[in-house]
Specification:
Order of helices and strands: HHHEEHEEEEE
Radius of gyration: 16 Å
Largest sheet: 7 strands, mixed
Distance between the termini: 21 Å
Shape: globular
Number of strands: 7
Structural class: alpha+beta
């Protein structure tokens, strides 16, 4: 239940502040799709570039591997522990990136992906999953405020 709560509060906030969830903005859609691709690329090669794509505050949330990280410092610590040593040892192939405008200044991106472990090795393992990213337009451009990855067993 707690996993749903932050996202549910965000949706309620957006609804009560007058956001039009059905709004379709092609420019925003293209921009967010490009950012999702950059985010996936950075996750594979440059942790600092990936972390710079998050909103740098305590309300930012990242969920993956059964863990909830709240705040950019917690996300950074988790990335330093679990991602830095794995750079170059996996590859993300994204599927179709669906973008839904959540009104002025917010967008939701959902994409399936295949993560290949040890892509240059003779024997590799592929894991399918789905990534959800909530983006917020800030004075520094679009930033991730909520990230969630889930993997198929």
């Amino acid at each position: 239940m707690q996993v749903i709560r932050p996202f549910g509060f965000l949706l309620l906030f957006l609804l009560f502040t007058g956001c039009d969830l059905t709004q379709d903005n092609s420019a925003v859609k293209g921009e967010i799709q490009g950012l999702v691709k950059q985010f996936a690329e950075a996750a594979q090669k440059d942790v600092n570039a990936m972390l710079a794509m998050y909103e740098q505050g305590p309300a930012t949330v990242s969920i993956g591997n059964g863990q909830i990280e709240r705040g950019i410092e917690s996300i950074r610590k988790n990335a330093d522990t679990n991602l830095v040593g794995a750079l170059g040892k996996f590859k993300f192939d994204l599927g179709s990136i669906e973008v839904t405008s959540m009104g002025s200044g917010y967008a939701l991106a959902v994409t399936p992906f295949v993560m290949t472990e040890n892509p240059s090795a003779v024997f590799t393992r592929q894991i399918k999953g789905v990534s959800t990213l909530v983006w917020k337009k800030t004075s520094n451009g679009w930033k991730v405020i909520h990230e969630h990855e889930s993997y198929q067993p």
